[in-house]
Amino acid sequence: MLLRYKFRIYPNGAQTLLLGEMLADFGRLYNAALEQRIAAWDRRRITLHFLDQDKELKATREADPALARWS
What's the pTM value of the predicted model, to 2 decimals? Predict the structure, then answer.
């Protein structure tokens, strides 16, 4: 049996701003990772795997305090 739950959130003004910032940061990270994969394939015909990019993401988050604030 599969159950599904749907939760609605009602953030206040400050939370809405933070959610927008978080979405923007995650979007930039996603696009950078996608661009990195495309460039690796175009230049060297190699495939980047999740684990390779995950290691780099951890180092990037440690170096950038703006990204370190998100879990």
Answer: 0.77
